[in-house]
Design a protein that fits this description.
Blueprint lengths: L2 E2 L10 H9 L4 E2 L2 H7 L6 E6 L8 H15 L3 E6 L21 H18 L10 E4 L1 H4 L4 H7 L6 H6 L1 H8 L6 H4 L1 H16 L3 E5 L3 H15 L4 E5 L12 E2 L2 E2 L9 H9 L6 H8 L4 H8 L6 H17 L1 H16 L8 E5 L1 H6 L1 E2 H7 L6 H9 L3 E3 L2 E2 L6 E2 L9 E6 L3 E7 L14
Parallel strand pairs: 3-4, 3-6, 4-5, 6-7, 10-16
Antiparallel strand pairs: 1-2, 2-7, 8-9, 11-14, 12-13, 12-15, 15-16
Helix pairs in contact: 1-3, 10-11, 12-15, 12-16, 13-14, 13-15, 15-16, 18-19
């Protein structure tokens, strides 16, 4: 049975299902009533899979991780599955082309870099509700091709696989779909079967784009093992204006600090549209529903307090207490013209670059404050760029060694909210070492 998001008069009975529905994590389920009943029986193992296609997850991955966090808070056991094997194949779901092929060394590097995010959001250990992390390369690498075709492939209908939106959309657009990618659905379904055998896993969760893959896994476990397991997807996340959530003009909102500074991560949440503040507080923070309801009743300038709460709490979960506090303090200092730089993105320049001078236009592009040199020039001409609080008047303006004679860093700003600290490569700096703000 396929179920959509719960609607009245159906009321979840298990604490876990109530939390998931009240906070907005439920889109579709293979049997919501059956899942609700199962989550009432004790600690239930639940898994979400992540391919290691980059050395960081992004905000788009955060929703199912937060759903795992909610379930663990209710006493259930999260299984984080890293796709060391499936990353080599590439999920074709709703993509217009195949993913680049990564070698084993890069995949291992990515897996190691990603792990830190889960360790902040989930509690790992040996207890019944402690999270575990596993790698599907452990079993996929040892599969024999003939055995896979005989034991697993016979349970799949090609007609049904072609009917799923994730595959059909590629074919309808006459976009290439390789035989390698077409097998991804089988491998992900086999993951569910293997986790069911090894850990007693009863639930797979994922984004709405994973629906076809999840249903295939549920069906495979039923056919091979003869018992019911469940699939659950989170809603596709868009902003109230209809934009895809988690993308900006500068690219993806990465969760690793090496990819995106905690300050820029904080600013992303602070810039949330008014109509999304309550929803994002429910999804991406641990703030109580009662407190969120109080903030949702606010409007106008008063809503800024809720946005700052969202930014700080979301940053705290991913980057820790200190990073969140520093980012909030740096943002307040930026708005008031102060000199605090803790948490601000750092842009390094070499001393030999400064002998001839580095143009502000180039620095804006390098810092991702402008999408192109043309965009940078327009920002300057619109008097939207400042160096240490002083408006840059010319598109030919440069930064050279004289800017560092009395300070070891210079703040480059676009508008009131976007800032980077330009510093000499290899130098350490603090807020007190910036030249005085104008």
């Amino acid at each position: 049975m396929i179920s959509s998001a719960p609607a009245a008069p159906w009321v979840p009975q298990s604490p876990a299902m109530r939390v998931l529905t009240e906070r907005g994590y439920v889109n579709q389920g293979t049997s919501l009533a059956g899942l609700d009943s199962t989550l009432s029986t004790g600690s239930v193992p639940v898994y979400v899979g992540f391919d290691a296609t980059a050395d960081s997850l992004h905000v788009g991955h955060l929703l199912p991780v937060m759903a795992l966090r909610r379930l663990q808070q209710c006493g259930h056991k999260p299984i984080v599955l890293m796709g060391g094997g499936t990353t080599r194949v590439g999920d074709p779901s709703f993509r217009s082309e195949a993913r680049p092929m990564l070698d084993d060394e890069q995949i291992s590097t990515n897996v190691a870099a990603i792990r830190g995010v889960f360790e902040r959001l989930l509690a790992f250990g040996d207890g019944p509700s402690d999270a575990v992390m596993v790698n599907n390369a452990d079993w996929l690498d040892g599969l024999g091709y003939i055995a896979l075709l005989r034991d697993v492939g016979r349970h799949f209908s090609v007609n049904r696989m072609l009917s799923f939106d994730s595959v059909r959309s590629r074919l309808e657009k006459q976009e290439s779909l390789s035989f390698l990618e077409f097998n991804y659905m089988i491998l992900q379904a086999y993951d569910f079967l293997e986790l069911s055998r090894r850990f007693g896993c009863k639930v797979q969760m994922g984004g709405s784009d994973q629906w076809g893959n999840i249903v295939s896994g549920v069906d495979l476990v039923r056919r091979v093992e003869g018992h019911e397991v469940f699939g659950l997807t989170a809603p596709l996340l868009t902003t109230s204006s209809g934009a895809k959530m988690g993308k900006t003009a500068s690219g993806a909102i990465w969760l690793n600090a090496a990819r995106l500074s905690p300050f820029d991560y904080w600013q992303f949440w602070r810039n949330t549209e008014d109509g999304d503040v309550g929803r994002f507080l429910r999804l991406f923070t641990d703030v109580s529903l009662e407190e969120i309801a109080r903030h949702e009743s606010r409007c106008g300038a008063e809503l800024n307090d809720a946005k700052e709460l969202l930014a700080t709490e979301a940053t705290r979960l991913v980057h820790g207490d200190d990073a969140a506090a520093s980012a909030a303090e740096a943002a307040r200092a930026s708005l008031s013209g102060g000199s605090a730089v803790d948490g601000l993105q750092r842009l390094s320049v070499q001393s030999d670059e400064l002998e001839l001078g580095v143009t502000v236009v180039d620095l804006l592009v390098r810092a991702n404050l402008a999408s192109s040199k043309g965009d940078a020039r327009r920002l300057i001409q619109g008097r939207g760029v400042k160096l240490d609080g002083v408006t840059v008047e010319s598109v030919d303006a440069t930064i050279d060694s004289t800017h560092f004679e009395t300070a070891d860093a210079v703040r480059l700003s676009v508008g009131r909210k976007r800032h980077v600290v330009v510093a000499l490569a290899g130098e350490r700096f603090g807020g007190s070492h910036l030249r005085n703000q104008q």
